[in-house]
Amino acid sequence: MERTYKVIKLPITGYKVQIYDYYLRGDRVAIEKIMTDAVDMTGEGTISKVDTGYRYDMEDEAVLRAIKSIKDGDKELPVEKETVASLPEDDYELIREKLPKQKGKKSTTRPSEDISEKPRKKGE
User: Does the global pTM surpass 0.90?
Assistant: First the structure.
């Protein structure tokens, strides 16, 4: 099944970028895994090291996983980290604004309905 997407034109480079309307479950997991991998724990459960650059890595991964294609006129550019890193800041920010939202109708990671037993009042 082909995911739906929208097409935006970047203001500075003029590239036409196809951006998916929603992430797949695997996309969300991969994006969030970057954050959990950025923390090293000791055997005692304390944090020994945090890679503070994880936020930028997560942003780039979210952008890469949302892009279906990038076209410069008739030429298709590779959807890879180097292409995204070479974009002007304004073009990059426009793509980020158009990324699929985590909450909403088409999100694949909405919280599931809580089916746990609800607390009862005394006497019920």
Answer: no
